[in-house]
Amino acid sequence: MKWICLGALLGCAQVSQTGAGAADAGAAPHLESVEPQPGSIPGSAKFTVRFSAQMDEGPLLAGSGRSETVVLAGEADVERVAAAIAHSTLSAHERQLLIPAAADIAADVRSIQLTPDRPLPAGASYLLVSPRLKDAQGRHLIGNGARFAYQVAAPPARATLISPLAGAEAPLNLAYLRASAPAGKLTLLDEKGAILAGPVEAQGETELALCQQAPCTSLQAGKKYQLALDGVGDDAQVFSAAACSRDAPPVLQGGAAVIAARDTSVVAQIALDWPARAELLVAEARNGSVDDGCLASGCASTQADLSCAPPPCGPQSFVCVASLRIGGLKPAADYLLRVAARDDVGFTLRGPEQKFSTVASLPRVILSEVMATPPGPTPRSAGEYVEILNLGPGAALVDGFAFSAEDGIVRPLLASPPPLPVQLQPGGRALAVGESFDSARYPSIPPSTPILRGSTRRLLGRGLHNGAAPFRLVLQGAVPIELSGYPGAPPSCPDGASLQRDESAPPGAEARWSCGPVGGTPGTGP
Question: What is the pLDDT, as a whole number, of residue 7?
Fold first, then answer.
């Protein structure tokens, strides 16, 4: 016999451990054990709940293939989750409160294992068991549910090499080292443990100078060097010195940045042949020029570290790439742009002055939901859709909208021009679908939802391919303008669930995509 504590909602119970057949055939089921025991656990933990009797699989496993009665929740949501699982089926919003986890039921239906989709974050997490569970005879679980508290410790602070990258080779005349750490003192150690650079107080991204004047001769060919935080070296953060020096500044591929301008922002795609800290400078054309002093006259700027590991000796290739974005620009205005960079040897790059113009104001629309794995019946492809949301403030004319995928083909959302313009009002949602789409599969679609049918049977010509491939919503023109995008590489979701975007993120910005409910929410909010 031993005592098993079942949490604040149920208290403790004395449980027999004499085997599966020891449970009283006339007694209501109870929890026999939970693994791991409440307390400190690693973020990679899996959870197993064992019962005293064979359970009814219906309440234990929802139609999504996940459990909505044995669940995981973070500290901020635990009270709402406890209340939700004590009652009927969870709503789409309530499912979003759960920590996503795969559920596996044992063959004898006497236990269930939860495997979180990703490692648990640092802090408190809870395993909760609903009082709605019942055994195969229909008897409900003893008590009023159970709650088990766990604590995941924050990972120890680590420093990370930005340039040179860990495992890379550096030229002999390396003058600066860039690293990142949340706090503490950064140093660079040689093979004997002697300090070669630092200590420097870490403040996020930090620079360590290996020498005070050029040429720098601190490194020795073939030797290894280790990054240390608060005097402790990290075997994973090591680079070596090559047998050559670098004697030229970084080179910009094509001699210029590739510019993509929107109404209020511009993105510059750059590729260099050597790691560097790059800066993008943008100023209105009426200010005259873009130079290093333009910040005083209203220049906008942003920076990015190009972390890459080209060979220091021999031919170079343009493997150091970055995308730099500046927002807050005026629609339909002329601008000048320049790329500047400084590498870790001390060389600088000053790119050419490039002219560009922002376009007139664009509709603020986003791709808000993607149904790439529709629920049955077959053919399941007839249930594929992409939801478009107009964030306003004005109406959006959708006649010129199209999808652009990796094949480079621009496919209009409407197979033929409509007799009257199709307007999507602020807050309104429309569904982009293929010819074969069957709206009867989704009886909850609001009648006022525009359904935009393309010219191919399936979206993007061949379907959404389980959501793995990215695509863009563009405004057609001589040069299509991206309005919103779907990044592909979706999270692991239950079969039949949609993918939903964080609608608080503005158009053109990166946004989090997460699993929606099985069956989706076409034409309505999440």
Answer: 40
What gap in Å lies between CA 405 and CA 229, rounded to an integer?
45
C-alpha of 142 from chain center: 41
Angstrom CA distances, 143 to 8, 55, 75, 278, stand at: 11, 16, 22, 62
- DSSP readout, 173-195? T--EEEEEESSSEEEEE-TTS-E
Give the phi and the psi of residue 373 in degrees, each rounded to 5.
-130, 75
Strand runs (DSSP E) across 372-523, as ranges? 385-390, 396-397, 401-405, 410-412, 423-424, 429-433, 451-453, 471-475, 481-486, 497-501, 513-518
Q: What number of H helices and E strands is found in the chain?
A: 3, 38
What is the pairing mode between strands 276-284 and 266-272?
A: unpaired
Q: How, if at all, do strands 111-116 and 429-433 pair?
A: unpaired
The CA distance from 496 to 441, in Å, is 12
Query: Over the stretch 453-462, which tens digit does the pLDDT of each residue have?
Result: 998 989 988 8
**DSSP β-bridge partners for residue 241:** 170
Higher pLDDT residue, 152 or 419? Answer: 152
Which residue is associated with the tokens 């870490």?
202
